[in-house]
Amino acid sequence: MKHIYSKLSKTILTLVLTLSMAAAFAATIVVPAGTTQTFTGSMNGTIFEVYGTLNFTPSGFNGSNNKVIAFAGGIVTIPSATSMQNVVLDIRKDGTLNIKATNFSMNNSNSGIINNGIINAASTTLTFKSGTGLQNSGTVNAGTLILESGAPVGILQQNTGTITVGQYFENAANYENAASGTINVTGPCSGLRCGFTTKNGLFKNSGLMDITGAVNIDANMELNGTMRVTGDLSIKRTVSGINGKLHVIKGRSEMVGDGHYKGTNMQFYDYDTPGNNFDSKTANNQSEDQYTVVAPPAAPAAALPLRFISFQAVTYNKFSVYFKFTTSVESALSSLQLQGSNNGKNYTIIESFKPHNQNGIFHYTSAHIDASKYTSYRIAVVNVDGQKEYSNIVFYKSSAASVETSIYPNPVTNATFNVKVSSAEPAIVNIYSNDGKLLSNTVLKGQQQYPIKMNAAAAKFNLLTVQVIQKGKIHSFTVVNN
User: Fold this and answer.
1) Are both 298-395 and 406-480 of the same fold?
2) Which fold has domain 406-480?
3) What is the pLDDT of residues 42-88, one digit of tens each?
4) Cβ atoms within 10 A of the Cβ of 367, count?
5) Which CATH superfamily groups domain 298-395?
6) Helix (H/G/I), strand (E/B), else coil: 422
7) Helix, strand, or coil (residue 278)
8) How far is Cα 38 from Cα 334, in angstroms, rounded to an integer?
């Protein structure tokens, strides 16, 4: 394999490559760190190894072995192209892919995206046509994500990957969200094309999906994880799985046509909207339309070494909440634990209670809790041999005003500033120079406030643009660097 390296002086950091590769000429082109290159030629068995910045606008795609690899620190920007074929975009850990066009598609079976880094396409409708796919273990931000019918691979969400879609997610092929994967469809939206739709192939969710907008299940779905819908839900095919949870919040649930559910220990809840399909078909509290109270399903409740009569959140003020639960027929219990979670998967013990271990009606009340700290709660029932069973889940959202995204101090001192975001979900912080050059890219998660230390490239500028991306929303700030 022949390598082409850019031989640049210290003062020349930009190179335009206009290469038309002959059929027999396969080349590896290396973009060194600290350089910016633009490619406008035709690919033919071409491989780009990107450690710096590559503006990628190819004029053609010949052959089937074309590849662009963004290594750690490498940035690939597609400024204007609306489609690609016969090329694989391979974004490694700490690499970045920026897609700027309003619409962008991968078009044949020799093309696709493998992402272990960051994909910024928050203003783009990103389409994977028949035979293409996205394998993601990193972070993807897309305006709209469409997987067309016929793709044999579909979108495979792997490991700790996170996909955030600002408007609409349509799955018409095969899709799998693995146990540690997270999907956020943030909305809001209106009309038919909003929220999430699956209409062909197989959709499998073993992780967490959080959707704002309408959801239409018009294909078989395997649900082994948690799916939360803030909006209306319509099920027209079979929903199956093991220990899957489907929650409809402030919306309407319905099962029409061939819609039905089956599986093992499946839980279906409809909150805030009484008398819907999930209420009538799973013995939920049909009269409750104000609080996030979950009545236990009849079958799972019988398996616990006690009986839950009620479990509810009580608002103390807009900043704090406490919990009340009532049990009966307790036996052979070691403790009862109130637990909280931000993602529906990992729970933290908030408070422990000593059980009575006898027949009767027993009431428990928790201490006051910061209402913004967790979003879902459950009771862990620990028996004397250490085994645990769990109550059903109560969701509670603080009524306090949400934290606005902000940058401070501004002007910046000592090349350091703080970023405050609205939640602990993953956030991307990009720093740009006045002429639009990306100087640094950082992915943050797990907190709502972060200190950012500028790198040397950013610190030398007096005026910068800081872009903060979270849950599909982009916030831009002009920052003065003293």
Assistant:
1) yes
2) Immunoglobulin-like (2.60.40)
3) 888 899 999 999 999 998 888 778 999 999 999 999 999 899 988 99
4) 10
5) Immunoglobulins (2.60.40.10)
6) coil
7) helix
8) 66
